[in-house]
Write a structure and sequence with these properties.
mainly alpha, 0% strand
């Protein structure tokens, strides 16, 4: 739990993890609701899918508020750190009576954002890896050249 909470404290990593966990939770909950599973049972099952224990604990607390009669978006807003956009979309889905469709739309949106984040990271990582390999190869060449020159100096004496 402490490790998961620490991961959520790292700025760029936290955003990525919250996108991923939001998509996973919304996809599972939306699919279960579309299949006709009652909200409380579906939310409990969707909570089990969430990988980050800190986020899962917040969702579990939100499920407790659901049992007391709170709406899904109010419960999630008060107990979790899910993105505000997702919470607003869930609120609209609840008000329109199409929560399952809206949850699937939330999942699709956050899955796309997660994929874009991965693509951006890989794009930034490629030049960094190229430079790192260039420095390592250059260091290796310098070490070999230094050894060769040292042998030449010894031979010249």
């Amino acid at each position: 739990m402490l490790f998961d909470r620490t991961k959520l404290a790292v700025p760029l990593l936290a955003r990525f993890l919250l996108q991923q966990e939001t998509a996973r939770f919304a996809r599972t909950l939306g699919t279960l609701l579309r299949a006709g599973v009652p909200l409380l049972r579906a939310a409990t099952s969707a909570c089990d899918v969430v990988g980050n224990r800190d986020v899962a604990a917040g969702i579990a607390r939100a499920i407790g508020l659901l049992q007391e009669g709170a709406s899904l978006h109010h419960a999630l807003a008060s107990e979790t750190s899910l993105p505000a956009v997702a919470l607003r979309m869930i609120a609209v889905g609840e008000e329109a009576g199409k929560l399952d469709r809206m949850l699937l739309a939330v999942a699709a949106k956050f899955e796309q954002q997660t994929q874009r984040s991965i693509d951006r990271f890989m794009t930034a990582l490629t030049p960094l890896l190229t430079m790192t390999i260039a420095v390592l190869v250059g260091g290796l060449i310098m070490a070999v050249m230094n050894a060769i020159l040292s042998v030449n100096e010894l031979a010249a004496r």
